Amino acid sequence: MTNVEFSYSLNEHSKSLRPFAMRLTKDMDDANDLVQETMLKAYTNRDKFSDGTNLRAWLYTIMKNTFFTRYQRMLRRGTFVDTTDNLHYINSGDFSIENKAHSKFALDDIYKCIGALNSAYKVPFMMYFKGFKYQEIADELNLPIGTVKNRIHLARKTLKGDLKVYKTN
């Protein structure tokens, strides 16, 4: 395969790489960077591609490996290594472990407040919370969609007022 044919094939496959890059990175700019880096690596290593094999699979493998390498590099950058002779930073009491007990109390309070809601508000709110769309809730409960939206809004407003002690700002 000539360089021109290889470049043309790369260009044809670049469109199919974008959705895969988006699933990996979950960010459009990062996905575009990943596709670009994959294409660059594929072109610079075109001599390693064997004619007659699946170019698309080869590109997906390059992309996956590039993503994992980037991810591991990012994790290593966040790692702190104590190089002091007496391990001062490791032995200092500046680090503490959080046991997440406060989140259990908050969760208990949330469930208690939801349980205290009138069922006319609680049922649509819980259905919405579980992932139902407004129209699905309206159809299931035989209510107008405006009523469903209003009841969910009022339930959220009530919960927000009841749980204002947990507001972070």
How are the SSEs ordered, and which strands pair?
Blueprint: H1 3-25, H2 28-44, H3 55-77, H4 88-91, H5 101-116, H6 119-129, H7 134-141, H8 145-162
Helix pairs in contact: 1-2, 1-3, 2-3, 6-8, 7-8
Specify the number of helices.
Answer: 8
Fourth-tier CATH superfamily name of the largest domain: RNA polymerase sigma factor, region 2, helix turn helix motif
- What is the oligomeric state here? single chain
Silhouette: elongated
Strand content of the residues, in percent? under 5%
- Calculate the mean pLDDT score and round it: 82
Q: What is the tally of beta strands?
A: 0
What's the alpha carbon Rg, rounded to whole Å? 27 Å
Task: Please estimate the helix content.
Answer: over 70%
Largest sheet: none
Question: How do the helices and strands follow one another from N- to C-terminus?
Answer: HHHHHHHH
User: In the residues, how many domains can be counted?
Assistant: 2
Please report the first level of CATH classification, the CATH class of the largest domain: Mainly Alpha
Distance between the termini: 61 Å
> Which CATH architecture of the largest domain is right?
Orthogonal Bundle
- What is CATH's topology name of the largest domain? Rna Polymerase Sigma Factor, Chain: A
Describe the protein's architecture and organization.
This protein has 169 residues and is an all-alpha fold. The protein folds into two domains: 3-77, RNA polymerase sigma factor, region 2, helix turn helix motif (Rna Polymerase Sigma Factor, Chain: A), CATH 1.10.1740.10; 101-166, Arc Repressor Mutant, subunit A, CATH 1.10.10. It is 71% helix and 0% strand. The protein has eight helices and no strands. The protein has helices at residues 3-25, 28-44, 55-77, 88-91, 101-116, 119-129, 134-141, 145-162. Helix 1 runs antiparallel to helix 2 (28-44). The protein is elongated.
